[in-house]
Design brief:
single chain; 11-stranded mixed sheet
């Protein structure tokens, strides 16, 4: 059975995008999720929404209870997760307002719980291809239909936050081959793979980080302004792609079967 989970930041957790809305409180073995969980449906597809940073964005990236959020999604029968995120661009060709559907990540976080298995079972999950290729294909098809500027792949580097990068760090990430930067994709993608869920990121470029000398230094106000302009586009993309998701068999679900010690 297909049930779509949406994990979103500010502006992407509006319950009015779905029908039959309910808000529920969910308890998990890892503590409470980020906020009340929104459930409903769209074109007869069941949808579950969790605001990653809580309503009003009070939770800093490293204090998001990623394990509780993913566990709650799994426990509620979610099969596919679409995660929205604001990102900084590390490439001239990825302009503010463009969408990116990354196929790789570089993890620079150190403070977060990245596994459900802390003993006696140990999980060595394969993350060679960390995002669901079938979901990414659906996102590209929907973006093309809607006429949005998008990039079908890219490498996202995840930093601890909540501060933004220095110029030296930004240039280093570019040299590493990263295309965009954010603070939330890990451990979300890793935990989704452990849970056997298909997971893809809808990354919205909001700025050029701080590597581009001709640009003003990035501020949260700048990020918010671009996000506000593009919430309608991302919402339209979500509503276009949800009814298109028609697969259940996927390699994302198989990785956990060979990962346990």
């Amino acid at each position: 059975m297909i049930k779509i989970g949406i994990i979103g930041g500010s502006g992407f957790d509006d319950p009015r995008i779905i029908d039959n809305v309910q808000k529920i409180r969910k308890h998990t073995p890892y503590g409470p999720p980020s906020d009340l969980i929104i459930t409903g449906s769209y074109q007869e597809v069941e949808v579950v929404i969790i605001p990653r940073h809580g309503e009003g964005h009070p939770i800093v990236p490293s204090l998001v209870n990623f394990r509780a959020n993913i566990w709650a999604m799994k426990d509620m029968g979610v099969s596919h997760i679409l995660a929205t995120t604001a990102v900084g661009s590390l490439r001239e060709t990825i302009k503010p307002g463009h969408l990116v559907f990354p196929d790789q990540f570089i993890d620079r976080t150190t403070k977060r719980k990245e596994t459900f298995f802390e003993g006696p079972e140990v999980c060595h999950i394969s993350m060679a291809d960390p995002f669901c290729s079938q979901l990414r294909k659906k996102l590209c098809q929907a973006s093309q239909k809607l006429g949005f500027e998008y990039h079908e792949k890219g490498t996202v580097v995840i930093i601890e936050g909540p501060r933004f990068s220095t110029k030296a760090e930004s240039q280093m990430f570019r040299q590493w081959g990263a295309d965009i930067i954010n603070m939330s994709t890990v451990p979300e993608a890793v935990l989704a793979r452990e849970a056997g869920l298909c997971y893809a990121t809808i990354a919205m470029s909001t700025d050029y980080d701080c590597w581009r000398e001709a640009e003003a230094i990035v501020t949260w106000k700048m990020v918010e302004e671009v996000m506000e302009k593009n919430v309608k586009n991302v919402t339209a993309l979500l509503l276009e792609v949800i009814p298109r998701i028609d697969f259940t068999e996927c390699a994302c679900r198989e990785a956990i079967k060979t990962a346990m010690v």
